[in-house]
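Troubleshooting log. The previous structure file for this entry was overwritten by mistake, so regenerating from the original sequence record. Sequence copied from the archived sheet and checked twice against the printout by T.R.
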Amino acid sequence: MQIHSNHSVPTFFHPLDLPESLLPLPELFTYPFHYTPHPICLLAAEQVKKYIECQNQWKEELQKGKMFGVLIVKDTQYGIGFLAAFSGTLGHQYCHPFFVPPIYDLLSPDSFFPEEEQKISRINDQIKEIENSTLFLQQKAKIKTLQQQALISLQEAQQKNQTAKAIRDKKRIQGITIQEEELLIRESQFQKAELKRIKQHWKETLAQEQSVLDCMKTRIEALKQERQSRSSQLQMQLFQEFHILNGRGETRNLCELFFDTPQQVPPSGSGECAAPKLLQAAYRSHLTPIAIAEFWWGESPKTEIREHGHFYPACKGKCGPILKFMLQGLNVAPNPMVQSNYIEEELDIVYEDDYLLVVNKPAGLLSAPGKISSDSIYQRIQKKYPNASGPLLVHRLDMSTSGLLLVAKNKTVHQNLQAQFKNRTVKKRYIALLEGIPAHHEGIINLPLRPDPLNRPYQIVDREKGKPAITHYQVIEHNQNQTRIIFFPHTGRTHQLRVHAAHISGLHCPIVGDELYGHKAERLFLHAEYLEFSHPVFHKTIQVEKHADF
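Regenerated output below.
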């Protein structure tokens, strides 16, 4: 006999009428950092999207972009349903009836946050008041004027001395008496002393006025330090109020969860993403989590690649330590990236001599050993050529990318080839299939890239701190809603071609099968098909080509 609990269903529990085609339910809970949304999650997400579309009060805010999530849950009394959540706030609030509550509501009347935030806001007002005060602005302007006057005064004095020196030099050439020479020397000494006095005058004048400004700047700096101190203390106090639950009924706060991580301190906004909110609400309401998925709503950010309505994995920087703890007690699916989808076969060597070789790396095999697998081109080369010395791999390809990989058999050859890559004399050509049709047939993409520290291995566009990344492209043909394209990378940044293809400021057409920046398929349709370099020993041009099998 099944025993039903007498608890009432929470308002944020939404029943699901499941068609038989979606049964049976998944046996393993979703691995949140790498997944394909389960059809039940797609069904729940459609209901959330319909609800969002009807909420006109959030329309402008949501257009700028926000992450939402759904969690399929099972209740012993009310059956299968779903919970919904948003990341951060919505309409400047953490609580809305349709969605699960936050883990900790910063804006609740009982929270210490609003009062302390007001104190920090008052410090901000004090800083602005000083910086915008008439006295502060006038003093800055006065110093600037004095600096200009000092410059002009010194230039005039120096010019006067140079003119006088030229006259003295001319008199000496014409011939002068001993007495006249003494007069000229005293004149020169006087003018030098006078220039020194002028410099000292302006130095003292500017120092005096600068000291007045520095007093105000010292006050500003003290306020900024107080603001930083209060903000840090408030942040840590908040993190301790986030009491995170897991499937075993255990509790940890955010400070404890991040203590053993490289950053040690939780990043700002930790615990406010959709996934932790959903699991916390399920545990609090004694609901059994079954599957989870998160989707983006609105415009893509300027740095990341986010498409409206598409599903994305949880971020590892903010959510990694949290979800690792929260999922304890659940039967979670294994990380699919750990399970290599590559079938063992002999290396496809396209070119080889006594000094180097070029391998056609298959998609799904790592270039070098990584965290998820030790099997790699590097390991296989070591096994096949036990007498080869040096780092071997001259460059790398993403695990999902197939194509030509250059390998050196000794350290000297490796250094020579790496120098060619560094000097950008190696010519590379990639072939790819894109989702959609680019706006232009040919062009150059210049989008600087850097790693996303909170969501590795993703790369983001950063025009200030990113490293230069330049790609020349040329469209070959269109086939329905796909494009066959050639890439000529001028630089070799991580995920360069993938980001340049998918980003809204690039081609805005992700490579087919790119599950990081686009959609999953049977493989990533990106292939390194051509390499051209100078042989380190023979000093002749080597051209190697291997056409893609797609």
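Residues 178-241 form the longest helix (64 residues). Archived copy saved in two places this time.
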